[in-house]
Structure formats: structure tokens, C-alpha cells
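Progress against Task 2.4 (sequence-to-structure conversion) is shown through the following example record, which the project officer requested during the mid-term review.
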Amino acid sequence: MKRNLIARAIVICLLALCVAAYVYHDIYKMRRLGRDRFLAEQAVDAASRFDSTASTPAPIVVSVFGAIFVIFPLFLFYELLVLVVAKVLKAASIGVDDVAPAPGPQLPFS
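C-alpha cells generated for the chain above:
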């Protein structure tokens, strides 16, 4: 298996574990608050979010540029993690990286 593919799989698993830990923490916090208090806080938050966002929506151009400014750093972070993990795997000699094919007849379209 290629080292870069192994590094990507490891980083995806690590990021998935981070997201799962965040979701678990959020659900734990909801349970600790109790149903009535949680719903009361959500109602207050929802009213203020509606007043600040949905009542006067931003133009689509602002939303697109906002998404780009959020996605680009996240993608950059992901790629940097993959690069670091690939270097660690290379240092540990794990995985095969670009093995030359065995010599043989050259078939067209293969």
C-alpha cells in the first residue's frame, strides 16, 4: 500500500475521533443540564440567532467567500497532517512508496 494512502487513512481516523469526542462532550453537557434547562437555553439561543442571521440574511457572495475562508484553512490543516504522518511513516519504513513495475512486455493501452 502506498505510504501517502496510509497517512491519509490515519489522519481521517484521527480527525473522526476528534469529531466524535466533541459530539460526545456536547451530548454529555446536554444530559448534565437536564431536559428543561437545555430546552430553555436552546430557545434563547435560537431567538438571538434568528434575529442576527435569518431576519437579515447576508448576500450569497458573502456566504461563498465565508465558506472559502473556512474550508481553505481546514483543508490546509488536513494536508499538513497527512504530510507529517507520511514523513513519520517514511522514517519508520512503513508502507511501500512508488515501487517500480517489473520489467515485461509493453502492451499498448495498459
